[in-house]
C-alpha cells in the first residue's frame, strides 16, 4: 500500500515545486557576463529613432544601462514608461538593443511611447543578443564605466526593480 502511494507523493511534491517557482520567479538571473566585460558587438542604428547605432565602445566611460526590447513584446510596452522615468530621474546613459524587429514597427513603438535611449542598435539577426546571453525580451543590464556588466534583470521592470536599479546606479555614480 505504501509503495502505491509513492508516485502520488512524488507528483504532489513536483506540483508544489512548480507552484512555488511560478509564484516567486527570479528576475535577477545569474549570467556568465556578470562581473565580466560586455561582449564585443557593433550594431547599426534603428534609423527612424534618430539616435546612433550601438557598440561595445559606447559602454566605456561612464555607467550605462542596456535594455533589450522589441515592438512586438507586450511586456516591453508595459515597462517603457519606467525606462523614460529612469532616464529622467538619473540621466544615466540608456542604450537600447532592438531585437529582431521591423524598422517600421520599432519606429512606431518609439514614436508612440517616446524614445529615452541615447543610442539603439538594431539586432536584426539576434546575434548580439545571443552574445549577451539574452533569451527573452525585455532584459536589462547595468554596465560599469569600464564595460563590466554588474547586473542582469530578466523580464520587465516594475516599480520595485526600477527603484533598486536607481539605487545601484547612484551607488556606481558615487564610486566613479
Automatic annotation (TrEMBL):
<dbReference type="InterPro" id="IPR036249">
    <property type="entry name" value="Thioredoxin-like_sf"/>
</dbReference>
<keyword id="KW-1015">Disulfide bond</keyword>
<dbReference type="InterPro" id="IPR013740">
    <property type="entry name" value="Redoxin"/>
</dbReference>
<dbReference type="GO" id="GO:0017004">
    <property type="term" value="P:cytochrome complex assembly"/>
</dbReference>
<dbReference type="GO" id="GO:0015036">
    <property type="term" value="F:disulfide oxidoreductase activity"/>
</dbReference>
<dbReference type="GO" id="GO:0030288">
    <property type="term" value="C:outer membrane-bounded periplasmic space"/>
</dbReference>
<dbReference type="Pfam" id="PF08534">
    <property type="entry name" value="Redoxin"/>
</dbReference>
<keyword id="KW-0676">Redox-active center</keyword>
<dbReference type="InterPro" id="IPR004799">
    <property type="entry name" value="Periplasmic_diS_OxRdtase_DsbE"/>
</dbReference>
<protein>
    <recommendedName>
        <fullName>Thioredoxin domain-containing protein</fullName>
    </recommendedName>
</protein>
<comment type="similarity">
    <text>Belongs to the thioredoxin family. DsbE subfamily.</text>
</comment>
<dbReference type="InterPro" id="IPR050553">
    <property type="entry name" value="Thioredoxin_ResA/DsbE_sf"/>
</dbReference>
<keyword id="KW-0201">Cytochrome c-type biogenesis</keyword>
<feature type="domain" description="Thioredoxin">
    <location>
        <begin position="32"/>
        <end position="176"/>
    </location>
</feature>
<dbReference type="InterPro" id="IPR013766">
    <property type="entry name" value="Thioredoxin_domain"/>
</dbReference>
Amino acid at each position: 500500500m505504501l509503495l502505491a502511494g509513492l508516485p502520488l507523493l512524488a507528483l504532489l511534491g513536483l506540483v508544489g515545486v512548480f507552484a512555488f517557482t511560478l509564484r516567486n520567479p527570479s528576475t535577477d538571473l545569474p549570467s556568465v557576463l556578470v562581473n565580466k566585460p560586455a561582449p564585443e558587438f557593433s550594431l547599426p542604428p534603428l534609423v527612424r529613432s534618430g539616435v546612433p547605432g550601438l557598440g561595445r565602445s559606447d559602454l566605456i566611460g561612464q555607467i550605462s544601462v542596456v535594455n533589450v526590447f522589441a515592438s512586438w513584446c507586450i511586456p516591453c510596452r508595459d515597462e517603457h514608461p519606467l525606462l523614460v522615468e529612469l532616464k529622467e530621474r538619473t540621466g544615466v546613459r540608456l542604450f537600447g538593443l532592438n531585437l529582431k524587429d521591423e524598422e517600421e514597427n520599432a519606429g512606431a513603438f518609439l514614436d508612440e511611447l517616446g524614445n529615452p535611449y541615447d543610442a539603439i542598435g538594431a539586432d536584426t539577426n539576434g546575434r548580439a543578443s545571443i552574445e549577451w546571453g539574452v533569451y527573452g525580451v525585455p532584459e536589462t543590464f547595468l554596465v560599469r564605466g569600464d564595460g563590466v556588466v554588474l547586473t542582469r534583470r530578466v523580464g520587465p521592470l516594475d516599480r520595485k526593480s526600477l527603484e533598486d536599479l536607481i539605487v545601484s546606479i547612484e551607488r556606481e555614480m558615487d564610486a566613479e
